[in-house]
Amino acid sequence: MLRQSEARFRNLYEHALAGIAVSDWDGRLQQCNPAFCALVGYSENELRGVHFSALVHPDDLDPYSDRGLRTGEVSAIEIENRYVHKNGRPVWVRKIISTLPDETGKPSQFFALAIDISERKQKEELLRESEARLQFALDAGGAGMWESSLERGEIIATDRAFAMHGLPPGSPMTQDKALATVHPDDRPKVEQALRDTLETGAPFHVEYRFQQSDGSVRWLDSQAKLRETGGQRRLIGLVRDISRRKASEATIQTSKIRLQLALDAARLGWWLYDPVQGTASWDERFKAIFDIVAPETDVASIMARVPPEDAARVCATAAAALNPVDPKPFVGEYRVQRISGESRWIEVYGMATFEGSGEARRAVLMVGTAADITERKRAEERQLLLMRELNHRTKNLLSVVQSIANQTVASNPSDFAERFSRRIQALSANQDLLVRSEWRGVEIEDLVRAQLAHFADLIGERIMIEGPHLSVTPSAAQSIGMALHELATNAGKYGSLSDDHGGVTIDWRLEDGQFSIGWIEHDGPHVKPPKRRGFGSTIISAVAEASVGGEVELDYASTGVVWRLKCSASKALSVEA
């Protein structure tokens, strides 16, 4: 029987989940089970002879912790402290230590049962941090917290919540007493909000007035959620003083009509942003400018329409305007995409209003205007495009002159001067045509011939022009002409017109309401796609597409460049077509 008992004890000792250790009367370890070894990371051989205190974290050492055991005042003690694991990490343990007697009955050893409580300690620390963050958030937001037991009708609250209702901290409070502090005119809506929450479980949220003892009124915002624990229903919520916000809203409302008259005269829309609440409001003209249809539209919904490359700039400018230390005017131009997909340019201007001083200073309101400047931006873009085109064409013109000289001298050196002069004159006549016509009602063939004037002697031989009698609109003439100019220049420099063998076919057609015009090179040098996209590539593709709402097919085939623009006839052809 004794042998069986010892076997059971040894089995329990070896497989126990809790750490078990035995030390001599001096506190030096003699035996440790596997669980204790795992707890501290050392083997039993490494621990044998080591003093208990060597395992304890230096900050947790207490040389008098076992005094009661040594004097016989207590039979066991409980201690929670940290061991230092072999790898250096702290391990929180809960220890129950008692004494073991020798053969005479005199205490001669210590017996310790150790349990790892690191997870519990971590949760306790997280809970303390969470409570601290909650308190910090409440203090930062100037909010008070309250909790109401619906079954008992009792309310507990923080000192700030009591003060907001004109009550001394810690006052006994019930729902009836709380409702009695509400302004008589607002009490019905507070009671209705409370009933809705109790009946539907929806969050409780209401703004109401509290009339102070001196007769003045304070506006409060109270929000709460319904919770049920152990069959008990409770409302847990926050209350904030929103008197300043309400005063600002009242002031703004008073001046709205006068302001709207001035804005209408200037064709401006106004907007108002409350950075404290994160809410915004605007007038009808602003809604029209931003194409706001849905009544629930908010700031985030509007910002979602702003392209990312503009949104970052808008946010940075807004942050600078709301900076209480060194605020800047909120001024900016950015794009907004309307519901139809159309992109519009918007100009905004705003100024923030601040309250408080020092570290308490903060922005409480930002008011501004918005204007649709799309037409102005388009005019600026057209002007910039023309300036860039003038600069680009000047450079290309020199390249064309060089190409004409090279081709002329290569074909027949004897009459170089005469032929070179004729080609230069044709190029000059082309420029005159562009200026005189101002691109109104230009026939496509005239447009093509004008752009290929410097290759006039190749038309009909190496350059084929094919298509019906059609006229294009001013904008289409400008973009197609620019594209043909680029294609001709590139063909003369690198493509099928840069040697004596290649050719080009320019054709256009009108089929089923669709207009297309193409440039097909053949039999020229082997071509490769450009390594970078320059202004010329933009003219050939993006400008041509945008001006007529069409699409461009561009293929750098080994036999030569193939370019074709396709669009609706109504976008490109003039009425005569």
Features:
single chain; about 575 residues; alpha+beta; Beta-Lactamase; five-stranded antiparallel beta sheet; 18 helices
CATH superfamily of the largest domain: Histidine kinase-like ATPase, C-terminal domain
Shape descriptor reads flat
- The CATH C-level name of the largest domain is Alpha Beta
How many helices in DSSP terms? 18
- Uncertain runs: none
**Assembly form of the protein:** single chain
Side by side, the strands of the main sheet go 2-1-5-4-3
CATH architecture identity of the largest domain: 2-Layer Sandwich
CATH topology term of the largest domain: Heat Shock Protein 90
Q: How many strand units?
A: 22
Secondary-structure-derived class: alpha+beta
Helix content: 40-55%
Major beta-sheet overview:
5 strands, antiparallel
Query: How far is the first residue's CA from the last residue's CA?
Result: 117 Å
Mean pLDDT score, rounded?
Answer: 83
Number of domains: 4
Strand content: 25-35%
Query: How big is the Rg?
Result: 43 Å
